[in-house]
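Illustration: Large ribosomal subunit protein bL25.
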Amino acid sequence: MATVLKAEKRTDLRTSENKSLRRNGQVPAVLYGKTTESTAVSVHSVGFIKTIREVGRNGIIDLEVEGGKKHQVIAHDVQIDRIKDQILHIDFFAVDMKSEMEAEVSVNLVGEAPGEKDGGVVSNLLFTLTVSALPADIPEEITVDISELNIGDSISVEDVQTSGKFEIINEPTETVVTVVMPDIEEEPEEDDEEQEPEVIGEESDDSEGTDEEKKSE
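Result:
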């Protein structure tokens, strides 16, 4: 059973009103879908955070818009101000539970790569993978085990082991993670023998004398 999250309709779409909502602990949002009319709504920030913790990032939420109708949705896009640690806006996508859809799923690296102990650096190249599945089968994350990676080894999309009812649709040859040698800046080589500094403007013939000596002659 999906978790219920209450939402209120918005009629004032001005930026000043959105800021006022955030100050009062609410988040501006929009509800939309293939067969759902786009509707501006708002939800309580604390309630949304609790809901996401309960169902997961790609979990199904029953969004109950004032007026009574519930929509089964996922939080398709969440905009966050990292500096203020504040949710700015949410896109709720109404899903058809019987139709497959695409979604971005976070990659979670587990294990310790032997190559890292040997001085290598674990380079995570894909932080998310795109999957196709029924809404209820979309995983919260995809685990990738790096415990057998030595320096120079990598894991591609086609190497990722999964057991869920979903399909990863990234290019099979895309690299998810690799272990590389760290970049080392080479020190400039110094000459073994110290060179004498060149004297600029030194007279090569002492017999010519200085300008003052010439004037006195």
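Reading the tokens back as a structure: The mean pLDDT is 87.
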